[in-house]
TrEMBL record:
<dbReference type="GO" id="GO:0016020">
    <property type="term" value="C:membrane"/>
</dbReference>
<keyword id="KW-0812">Transmembrane</keyword>
<keyword id="KW-0732">Signal</keyword>
<feature type="transmembrane region" description="Helical">
    <location>
        <begin position="210"/>
        <end position="227"/>
    </location>
</feature>
<dbReference type="GO" id="GO:0005794">
    <property type="term" value="C:Golgi apparatus"/>
</dbReference>
<dbReference type="Pfam" id="PF06814">
    <property type="entry name" value="GOST_TM"/>
</dbReference>
<feature type="transmembrane region" description="Helical">
    <location>
        <begin position="287"/>
        <end position="307"/>
    </location>
</feature>
<feature type="transmembrane region" description="Helical">
    <location>
        <begin position="424"/>
        <end position="446"/>
    </location>
</feature>
<feature type="domain" description="GOST seven transmembrane">
    <location>
        <begin position="206"/>
        <end position="451"/>
    </location>
</feature>
<dbReference type="InterPro" id="IPR009637">
    <property type="entry name" value="GPR107/GPR108-like"/>
</dbReference>
<feature type="signal peptide">
    <location>
        <begin position="1"/>
        <end position="25"/>
    </location>
</feature>
<keyword id="KW-1133">Transmembrane helix</keyword>
<feature type="region of interest" description="Disordered">
    <location>
        <begin position="474"/>
        <end position="507"/>
    </location>
</feature>
<feature type="transmembrane region" description="Helical">
    <location>
        <begin position="385"/>
        <end position="404"/>
    </location>
</feature>
<dbReference type="InterPro" id="IPR053937">
    <property type="entry name" value="GOST_TM"/>
</dbReference>
<feature type="transmembrane region" description="Helical">
    <location>
        <begin position="346"/>
        <end position="364"/>
    </location>
</feature>
<protein>
    <submittedName>
        <fullName>Transmembrane protein 87A-like</fullName>
    </submittedName>
</protein>
C-alpha cells in the first residue's frame, strides 16, 4: 500500500512537470505537427475557437478588432522526398455553420474532402484539390490559402496574413493536402486568435467576469465568517475550524482562477503556474469539503469525540479522491484537452465520478445512523440542526443529478460546439452550487455564544435538558423513591449507556 501511494504521488508530480511545457492559449503553436490521414485527405487541425465579431470602433484603435492571424507558417518535407513538385498544401478557415461547404460526394456516395476522379468528371472540381464552395450566408468564406513545393525544395512558407472576423461564430483552421507522397511533411509556425475584449477564447471569456464575482462573493462570506469567529473564538468547535479552512481555500481558488483568465486574456498565452495553483487549490478545497461533510454526517465532534477506526478509511478515500481529481483537472485545464481522445477523457473522469458516488452513499448512510442516535438520546437542538443539514444535502444531490443529466444532453447534442456562447454556464453552475451549500453550512454552524451547545459532551443531554425540562412541571416523588441512591449507568466507548450493566444494577 505504501508503494502504491508513493507511486501515485510521483505520477501526479511527473504529470505536473510535463504539463509545464504545454500552454493552452489563443496563440496556437505548431511544432512539427504531422499530417494525419482522414478519408482521402491528410489533415492537421490548427484550432477551433469561438470568436465574437469586431465591435464598432470610433477611435481607430485595433484593440476591439477580432481576427485570426497566420504567422511564420512553414511546411517541411524530408530531403529524400524533395525530387518532385507537389500539389498545393491548403490552409482553410471556416465558420462551423459553413462546414457543409467543405468536401463533397459523387452520386450520393461517401463524402470526400479531396476531389476524386468521379467528381472531376462531373466538372465540379479539379482532381487532387480540396473541395470547397462559397458560403451562402457569409460571402467571401471559407478562406483558403495555398503553398506548393517546387522540385528539390525542402520547405515552403505560407504567406503571413490576418483575417478579420466580422461575424460571430465558432471558427476552425485546418491544414490539408491531397498528395499521398507528402504524407511525411510537417507544419511549423503559429496562428493568433483574438476577440474584441482580448485573447481569451469566446467560450472562456465570460468565465473571467464570473470568477471575479465569485471572488467578491467569497470575500463577503469570509467577512461574515471571520467576524463571527473573532467575536466568539472561545466558543469555537473543531468543525468550525474545518469550515474556516474551506472558506480560505475557496477565496484562494477563485482569486487564482480570475488572475489566470485575466493574464490569458491580456497576453494570449495561458500562465501555466497560475493555472496549476488554481487547479490545486480547487482540488484541495473539494477534497476537504467532502471530508468535512462526511465527518459531520458521522457525528464527529457532535455525538462522538473521534472517528475511531474509521479515521484511516476516511483519509484513504480523501487521498484517493485528491489524486484522481488533481490529474483530471490538470489534464483539462493545463494540457490541451483536444490532444486526448474521448476514451482518454473518460479514463480520467470515471474514477472521480465513482469516488463522488461513494462519498454520497457513505454520507447518507452515516447521516441516517447519526439522526437515529440523536433522536434516541433526545438531543433536540442537535437533531434540529442535523435535519436542516440533511435537507440541504438532499436538495444539493437532486439538483446535481438533474444538472448532470442536462450537461450530458448539452454535450451530446452540440457535436460541433455551435452553442459555445453558453458553454461557460456548465462549469459555472457547479461553482455556484458548491458555494450555496457552503453558505448553508456556514449559516447552520456559524460561531456564536451557543457554539459549544452543538459540540460533543460527556454529559450527554446536559444542554438539551436546560431547554426541554423547564417546559415540564415536575411531579412529587414518594418518600421511598427519594431516599434511594441514584443509579447512573456507565458509558461505553462510543458514549452510549451500557445496557447490560444498567440491567444488572437495577436488578
Amino acid at each position: 500500500m505504501r508503494w502504491s501511494k508513493s507511486a501515485g504521488a510521483s505520477g501526479v508530480i511527473l504529470l505536473w512537470l510535463c504539463l509545464l511545457h504545454f500552454t493552452e492559449a489563443s496563440v496556437h503553436d505548431y511544432n512539427g505537427e504531422k499530417f494525419v490521414s482522414k478519408g482521402n485527405a491528410f489533415v492537421v487541425h490548427g484550432g477551433s475557437e469561438g470568436i465574437y465579431a469586431s465591435t464598432p470602433n470610433f477611435t481607430d484603435s485595433p484593440s476591439s478588432d477580432s481576427f485570426i492571424r497566420f504567422e511564420k507558417i512553414v511546411f517541411r518535407r524530408p530531403k529524400e522526398f524533395s525530387n518532385f513538385s507537389s500539389d498545393p498544401i491548403h490552409a482553410i478557415v471556416f465558420e462551423v455553420d459553413d462546414r457543409e461547404s467543405i468536401g463533397g460526394s459523387a452520386y450520393g456516395g461517401q463524402r470526400a474532402v479531396c476531389c476524386t476522379a468521379d467528381l472531376a468528371k462531373l466538372g465540379v472540381c479539379t482532381q487532387g484539390q480540396i473541395i470547397h464552395r462559397p458560403s451562402a450566408n457569409n460571402p467571401g468564406w471559407p478562406k483558403v490559402f495555398s503553398a506548393s513545393f517546387s522540385t528539390d525544395e525542402v520547405e515552403v512558407a505560407l504567406q503571413s496574413r490576418s483575417i478579420p472576423i466580422t461575424k460571430t461564430g465558432m471558427y476552425n483552421v485546418y491544414f490539408i493536402h491531397c498528395e499521398p507522397y507528402l504524407k511525411d511533411i510537417n507544419v511549423e509556425g503559429k496562428t493568433i486568435w483574438k476577440n474584441p475584449t482580448g485573447y481569451l477564447p469566446g467560450r472562456m471569456a465570460p468565465l473571467m467576469n464570473f470568477y471575479g464575482f465569485m471572488s467578491l462573493a467569497f470575500v463577503l462570506l469570509g467577512i461574515f465568517w471571520f467576524s463571527q469567529y473573532a467575536r466568539f473564538w472561545r466558543e469555537v468547535i473543531p468543525l468550525q475550524n474545518c469550515i474556516t479552512l474551506v472558506i480560505t481555500l475557496g477565496m484562494l481558488e477563485m482569486a487564482f482562477w480570475y488572475f489566470d483568465y485575466a493574464e490569458f486574456n491580456e497576453t494570449g498565452v495561458r500562465p501555466t503556474g497560475t493555472t496549476v495553483w488554481a487547479v490545486t487549490f480547487g482540488t484541495v478545497k473539494r477534497t476537504v469539503s467532502r471530508l468535512v461533510i462526511l465527518m459531520v454526517s458521522m457525528g464527529f465532534g457532535v455525538v462522538r469525540p473521534t472517528l475511531g477506526g474509521l479515521t484511516s478509511k476516511v483519509l484513504l478515500l480523501g487521498g484517493t479522491f485528491f489524486l484522481a481529481s488533481e490529474v483530471l483537472e490538470l489534464v483539462e485545464n493545463v494540457g490541451a484537452v483536444s490532444d486526448f481522445s474521448g476514451k482518454a477523457r473518460i479514463f480520467f473522469v470515471l474514477p472521480v465520478a465513482f469516488l463522488d458516488a461513494f462519498f454520497i452513499l457513505w454520507i447518507f448512510t452515516s447521516l441516517s445512523a447519526t439522526l437515529n442516535k440523536l433522536q434516541a438520546r433526545r438531543l433536540l437542538a442537535k437533531l434540529d440542526i442535523y435535519r436542516k443539514f440533511t435537507n440541504a444535502l438532499v436538495v444539493a444531490v437532486i439538483v446535481s443529478v438533474g444538472w448532470t443529466c442536462y450537461e450530458l444532453y448539452f454535450k451530446s447534442t452540440d457535436v460541433y460546439n455551435e452553442r459555445w456562447q453558453n458553454a461557460w454556464i456548465i462549469p459555472a453552475f457547479w461553482q455556484v452550487l458548491s458555494f450555496s451549500l457552503l453558505c448553508i453550512i456556514c449559516a447552520l454552524w456559524a460561531p456564536s455564544q451557543n457554539s459549544m451547545r452543538y459540540a460533543y459532551s460527556d454529559d450527554g443531554e446536559e444542554f438539551d435538558k436546560d431547554v426541554t425540562l423547564t417546559l415540564i412541571k415536575p411531579s412529587p416523588l414518594p418518600k421511598d423513591v427519594r431516599s434511594q441512591p441514584e443509579v447512573r449507568p456507565t458509558l461505553g466507548n462510543d458514549g452510549f449507556p451500557n445496557g447490560d450493566e444498567v440491567e444488572d444494577k437495577t436488578e
